[in-house]
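2024-03-11 09:14:02 INFO receiving multi-entity request
2024-03-11 09:14:02 INFO entity count = two
2024-03-11 09:14:03 INFO echoing inputs for audit
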Amino acid sequence: MTPSYGELTTRNLLLGLSKVVDYDLPVPSIPPPEEDILFSRPPVLCPGCPHRATFYALNKAVPKRHRIVSTDIGCYTLGASPPLNAGHLVICMGSSLGIGSGLTQIPHQTDPVIAVIGDSTFWHTGLPGLVNAVYNKSQLLLLVVDNSATAMTGFQPNPGEMLSIADAVRGVGVENVAEVDAFDPKRSLEVIKEYVNRKGVSVIVSKGECRIQFVRREGLPDTTYEVESSRCVGCHTCVNRIACPAIMWSGKKNEKGKEIPVIDQFLCARCGLCSHVCPYGVIVPKKVTDGADK
Amino acid sequence: MKYEIFLAGVGGQGILSVTDILCKAAVETGFSVRGSETHGMSQRGGSVFANVRFGDIHSPLIMERTADILVAFEPAEALRYAQFVKSDGYCLVNKHPIPSPSFILSKETYPEIKVILNQLHRYSEHVFSLNATQAATELGRPIIQNIIMLGSLSAVPDLPLSDSALRLALKKQFKPQFYDLNLQAYQLGRSKFEEFLN
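2024-03-11 09:21:47 INFO inference complete, emitting structure
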């Protein structure tokens, strides 16, 4: 009949109906591709996305191999892909807390369990799961990635405009509550390290505004970032740790023959995360005068 | 009568704005209209498509091999959705390539544009391409490549949306200060396509 997985497209529906009614409905045939030359184009976190910065800090604080990350529905779900790998499972809105809390009940499971949820999903269906986690005394770290926006679906309003997540979390009985600045990964990393080992439910609200929303309102900052190619050692930490879409291969090599990355100035949203990531400090700020025009 | 337009490109290219303009123009013309767009994963940088159907229609999705027009804002995305245009339909392509962010972590590379355009001819008799991004950059705003493509689309023979209906919808879509430049881009795309027809 109709396929058991995939998308129920008009064509698939017609094919299925033809069989059900035993009548040949006109279904267009598709010419097969001559050769498969197409690449995949998976959606990615935008340049300047605060979630990338939060996950970078999480990865430094809690080793990827020794943790379980239960994520949720929103832009941050994209953080599950390499190289951030911040998400082992996701089902539906609000599931990060229910599943995360459930995972902590597994006997002999000693890896820390981290639930990730966005601000608008938290208000949508996060609270019931959180209440339950508190009630069950789950050993759970909840990371609320608060970008002050319902970004993925197009900036619909949400209750976060008038309510504080930290207050709500304290209100249901969570004692370990911290707020961090997503774009200060050094500090975030310290807080995550400390909170992941605390008893019971802990909550860290990582605040960093959605870059699209920020740039629409404020324009781009007048400080951009560049790779000082003459000093780049070609370690590729920037590429391998954060994979920002604005970081590309320059096609140039250094004297040791290592490829050198370049920051595409059209795509760059000037968040500066890469300058924190570069272990050699060769990604440097640079004043520009083009202001908000992009 | 029914008319179907399939739009494809990369998230952030202004595909949904053009979809909006087409829907508004069709409504103003008096058609029954259904528009549909990729939701959720339509992040910047991902593959995005939208469907516009109007006239005697009941559902929002375009079936393979039936679209009157495929307008693609990026060449690889044209090929990704080429099966949706009908064989005597029009395929309009911005041939400025956008590499996938996944390239940096994988071995994949961008195919030759010439090869992509050749493959498109297997799906449609009328393949029109121009480097709209380059033209838009010359106009001063690379982002308005989408309006250049809209201009080209406006000149497709037998399109049931008039030039004036489209211009009016374009005017309503953006802030007034952008209208002059947008109109310039629209005209440029329109005249390029008229040259192609002759």
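2024-03-11 09:21:48 INFO post-check: Chain A touches chain B at residues 9-11, 14, 28-31, 33-34, 37-47, 75, 78, 82-83, 152-153, 212, 239-240, 243, 245, 247-249, 261, 266 (CB under 8 Å).
2024-03-11 09:21:48 INFO post-check: Residues 39 and 221 of chain A are 34 Å apart (CA to CA).
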